[in-house]
Automatic annotation (TrEMBL):
GO terms for molecular function: oxidoreductase activity. NCBIfam families: LLM_duo_CE1759 (TIGR04037). This is Oxidoreductase. It comes from the Bacteria. Keywords: Flavoprotein, FMN, Oxidoreductase. Residues 1-152 form the NADPH-dependent FMN reductase-like domain. Coiled coil: none annotated. It comes from Streptomyces parvus.
Amino acid sequence: MRLTVVSAGLSTPSSTRLLGDRLAQSITDELSARDHDLSTEVVELRELAGDIASHLVTGFPPPRLSAAIDMVTNADGLAVVTPVFAASYSGLFKSFFDVIDPDALTGKPVLIAATGGTARHSLVLEHAVRPLFAYLRAVVVPTAVFAASEDWGSGGDAYTGALPGRVRRAGTEIAALMAARPVGDGPEDDIAVLERGLADLRFD
């Protein structure tokens, strides 16, 4: 099975990439427990910014961008992570998914995540990121993961839980969907995939 992590972080090191790596490890651990082997690829959008702009203008993707698009469209599941800018996803994040065929993500399991300076931005996942992937007819897992500055190393609280717990729960959800999705067949009905995958969820 193949997982592709899309990170829209702009700095090095990046908390956005760090969150993506933690999500990938959680998914790997869960699928391993289900006797599935997983290979993980990472698409760093900051390295493709010029190529994305060129494609938007010319309509032709440069080779590096074309390879990144193939990683996304051929993956069995996606973990996508964006920093929050102006109360929404970053322009780079949106532009990348603008150059992908609108039908390419149909039925694909997607875990959405974001990073920001304060927890006040956490609803960006529900009012901006989730609708984007619903429009693309992807199957978005119920748990979205937001990491504010104070979440790193924090124990969380009674309502939100610690960041590691949210990462683990989201990883369990997408692993169930990936394991339930037929390999090599065309995209199934989104609701059928979601219902079967969620029925198989198990939490420790």
